[in-house]
Amino acid sequence: MTTQLLTYIFVGATFTLYIGIALWSRAKSTNDFYVAGKGVHPIANGMATAADWMSAASFLSMAGLIAFLGKDGSVYLMGWTGGYVLLALLLAPYLRKFGKFTVPDFIGERYYSSTARKLAVLCLIFISFTYIAGQMRGVGIVFSRFLEVDINTGVIIGMAIVFFYAVLGGMKGITYTQVAQYCVLIFAYLVPAIFISILMTGQVIPQIGFGSTLVDSPIYLLDKLDRVTRDLGFVAYTENVKTNIDIFCITAALMFGTAGLPHVIVRFFTVPSVGAARQSAGYALIFIALLYTTAPAVSAFARMNLIDSIQDQPYSTSPSWFKNWEEIGLIAWQDKNEDGKIKYSSGSALEDVKPKYLDERGEYGERLLQNEPNLSNENEIYIDRDIIVLANPEIAQLPGWVIALVAAGGLAAALSTAAGLLLVISSSVSHDLLKKTYMPQITEKQELRYARMSAAVAIGIAGIFGIYPPAFVAQVVAFAFGLAAATFFPALFLGIFYKRLNKEGAITGMLLGLIFTASYIIYFKFINPEINNSDFWFMGISPEGIGSVGMLLNFIIALSVSSLTKPPPDEVLELVDDIRRP
User: Is 180 helix (H, G, I), strand (E, B) or coil?
Assistant: First the structure.
């Protein structure tokens, strides 16, 4: 049975499962649609939270980032897991005791202001669509490579599946679909990691293989990887390039952004009690750790296998996986020295970052490029970072069923997070903007209809982001975390632990955090990308880490404005006392 047929079977079976779950758990009320009736078991909620959390960035891109960045990529591991400790201790139990449907619901009630509620909805939509862009790119990559359809067609198919179970099932359908998606994605991530660990180091457990010697060699994997990367002109794999302040700020932005992400926070509204919310956070951290502790090993295995597989190989006899990814434009070869061999080293191969192909082949059968070669270095290879996990089983020559399983896992990771994000967008529009602000007279049945309509519109916009993605997956997602850290975390944290914070302080803080962080990111990534380096950054802090500065500005301005204006009314102080009472 061919790998492509196996992929169709695996992906088709998982899609059928997701649709079946959506039919079984169809939402019949706004309570079901928004918070799954608040009856989800902590273990199930922990698995759903892990699937909601471990997006295409975790499954597809994180290992690719670590493979190419080496030790610098560890900021993603530290930030994305450390944030769960903050969430479990500082936010989840209190927000569950508050007992409403959405994050803007809490902000609107706590800061006794429709303006605060509207601003929270604006921040939520901005963050969520930034995050969705990364998920849809992941869906397109998987479909285009393994199912041999156009990337745009793949995005549309993925959106159709999400539309079905998100619009029909709401949070109830999404929750139990995400439980199934977690099982698929974690199995798909661990199986090839175990295979490759055994092949390379003889160790069954990848985390142990990561620190072991290679098979039939006294050399440790990381020692060899350091030596090989240095020889190719890269920084040694286990050395840092980023400055300490940038590492600190990126990690902080990811941690506090995790604690402020609306689609993760809302998961803790779905359990029966405050105690269950704490348990859910603990289970989620365990389920997430299974993938996150494996990622460094997957990254090292992939980088080593990649170099061994292509370096100095004649293109005419290059491995099939290389030509497969070249066909969809995620690998490109530019024969700079005209020797017909693949030369991989540091530096960009092309003047333009993304390869643009001509409709003809070179003398060795390679796809010819419109791009001018970057002659300042000898590197002849462009490799998209998002393909590392997906290509890893092919590079290691694993069985076809493992490759098919990884494709199904990548789709599960992207679609589970996309569904959670789309739901918080639709919930905020229907509940916070319509029911609570502009159309308070609508019935529950009408609110449910508007929620489904909002989800449908959000899915259409998400599809556009998938077809025209702004950057590679993990980079886009990192921006979403920075925005969440700069807007939501201070408002939520101070709203629970500082009773004196009033609506003027919260609104000013969120607005400043959003404007500062978004402006910094947009300027360096889209307006002036040619000066996107540490020489021009504020205090050497990259756009990925600037959310931590935005968060500090939010805290400072919120506290300052609150101290100069009148305190919150008594009923708000009683609300804060109530949610803090055990």
Answer: helix
Strands 381-383 and 357-361: unpaired
Tens digit of each residue's pLDDT (9 = 90 or more) over 481-538:
888 899 989 999 999 999 999 999 999 999 999 899 989 988 887 788 778 777 888 8
Q: What span, in angstroms and rounded, lies between the C-alpha atoms of 332 and 455?
A: 38
Which secondary structure element, helix H or strand E, spans residue 191, and what is its range? helix 151-201
Q: Are 139 and 56 in contact (CB under 8 A)?
A: yes
3-state secondary structure of 368: strand
Contact 305, 394 (CB under 8 A): no
Which superfamily, per CATH, for 3-302+396-470? Sodium/glucose cotransporter (1.20.1730.10)
Tokens of 488: 């939501």
User: Domain locations in the chain?
Assistant: 3-302+396-470
Torsion over CA: 236, 239, 244, 248 (sign) = positive
Residue 367's DSSP bridge partners are 361
Which candidate, 237, 234, 245, places its Cα nearest to that of 71? 237
User: Hey, how many other C-beta atoms are within 10 angstroms of the C-beta on 522?
Assistant: 13
Q: Locate tokens 């939402």: which residue?
A: 27
Q: In terms of C-beta density within 10 A (0-12 exposed, 13-18 middle, 19 or more buried), how is residue 2 classed?
A: exposed
Q: Which residues contact 582 (CB under 8 A, 6 or more apart)?
A: none
Specify the DSSP class assigned to residue 177. Answer: H
Spatial contact of 445 and 110, defined as CB atoms under 8 Å apart: no
